[in-house]
Amino acid sequence: MNRSMYFDYIEKKLNLLASRINSRGKLNILNFNIHSENFYLNFFNKLYGWNLKSLNSVTQNVEAIDLIDDSKRIIIQVSAISTKHKIESALEKDLLKKYSNYTFKFISISKNADNLRKKKYINSHNIKFIPEYDIYDIESILAHIMPLKICEQKIIYQFIQDELGDEVDIIKLDSNLAIIIDILSKEDWDNKGSITSKNSFEIEHKISYNSLDSAKKIIDDYKIHHTRVDKIYSEFDLSGKNKSSSVIGAIRNEYIKAKKTIHDDDLFLQIVERVKELTIKSANFVKIPVDELEICIRLLVVDAFIRCKIFENPEDYKYATT
Q: Which residues in the chain belong to E strands, given as ranges?
């Protein structure tokens, strides 16, 4: 996974969690649940190098402060309510007198806080608090993550994956597979292509070698479009390196995983289903009728079969584009 994919995962996971928190109404993090409190506590520690602990683990029902780092002299309120009143109500609490030499930070976990950074606040106890720097939200947190080294992003990615898993939702990432499906869906596949008799003979040999019966009918129906698919791949590669190879590689990965437990016709049909599921789960999948999606998936799977990427090849199998 590269830097972009780590960041995309982190961004979408945090935004999904923010959306879920926001949909539950105006809740302080402590009323959300203990797991959420622990998540943000450990998340901020990893991201900013803080040594936070929950003040509520020491003193129950503490107002104004949720998390504290005594070593760096930081006190934090984490809230789903992002208003000037919310911040000022925290700043006026007498409890803050005890932390006069600490810095107060406010973290909005569900809404953008740009407007809050521009406001002036009544700071009754003159605690250290500079809105421009001490108010955080998802956008500012992501801005901090963006330039991190890939090894550092990976640590944050792994932490979020371990902590949240699929609790918030399954994260969808963009894929080249979804892009090529969108391209194929716009083609007229009634306009049949052609394939040389030599290739037809080789394909029949491979079908027989892998004991494909039901799948043979699908391969025969779609092999005539192999040349057009190959041309589309070539055009797709003009938009960047490894575009087509990433799509073919994704199909091959599904084959490798599935072949461990199933074989022959069932294996071929399972690859079609797995690639379809992979496509639908892509964030950039453009919805099309399911029967049209089926056509596009079969075109790609048959093409991968012809170009030696899935199933075993007979001895001296000769693949060649036309």
A: 53-54, 67-69, 74-79, 103-108, 135-136
Decide if pLDDT at 185 tops 80.
yes
In a domain, 246, yes or no: yes
Contact 19, 11 (CB under 8 A): no
pLDDT at 3: 60
List the domain range (segments joined by +) for residue 55.
3-164
Q: Which class for 120: exposed (0-12), middle (13-18), buried (19 or more C-beta within 10 A)?
A: exposed
Residue 81 in any domain: the answer is yes
Are the C-beta atoms of 63 and 86 separated by less than 8 Å?
no
Distance CA 98, CA 225 (A): 75
Q: Which of 122, 124, 90 is nearest to 108 (CA)?
A: 90
pTM over 0.70: no
pLDDT band at 20 (very low <50, low <70, confident <90, very high): low
Q: CA 198 to CA 99: how far, in whole Å?
A: 82
CA-to-CA dists, residue 159 to 20, 41, 43, 152, 164, angstroms:
19, 12, 8, 11, 8
